[in-house]
Design a protein that fits this description.
The protein has a six-stranded antiparallel sheet with strand order 1-5-4-3-2-6. It has 136 residues and is mainly beta. The chain has a single domain, classed as Roll (SH3 type barrels).
Length: 136
């Protein structure tokens, strides 16, 4: 959507916090009321609730980085669903890796909280972007 509420060229919805300019993206600061995805599109939780349960962890993730166990298979929802509400280390196809705390698993996506060095931020991604993951 654009700022008038109409869909934009990319079909994305702006995220707007009270008193802030609308922004686009896949993450939101901890403490915000709504996940950054509108209307349950692309398999993400509906804005303001739906299947989104739980919040960010109250503690940082483990201090160690686990070893990656690469699989020849794509990441499927059933596999990552076993990591719901658990510290999970994620390796993306683009080479980035991080601690993640999933709170929602959809048909093609996963959402939850991503560790940003000193705080948890809300984050969601398409399962096809995940190369591998490991939950503790």
């Amino acid at each position: 959507m654009n700022y008038d509420g109409n869909p934009n060229y990319y079909g994305m919805s702006p995220i707007q916090e009270p008193g802030q300019q609308p922004r686009f993206g896949g993450e939101q600061q901890h403490g915000s009321q709504h996940p950054p995805f509108g209307g349950g599109q692309q398999g993400f939780p509906p804005m303001g609730g739906g299947q989104h349960h739980g919040g960010a962890p109250s503690t940082p993730p483990p201090s160690h980085t686990p070893h990656e166990q690469v699989s020849a298979f794509a990441v499927d929802p059933g596999a990552i669903r076993g990591c719901l509400h658990r510290f999970t280390f994620v390796w993306l196809n683009n080479g980035r890796s991080f601690w993640f705390f999933p709170t929602f698993v959809g048909r093609d996506s996963v959402a939850g909280y991503r560790w940003r060095g000193f705080r948890w931020v809300y984050y969601g991604t398409d399962l096809r972007r995940i190369r591998s993951f490991r939950c503790s």
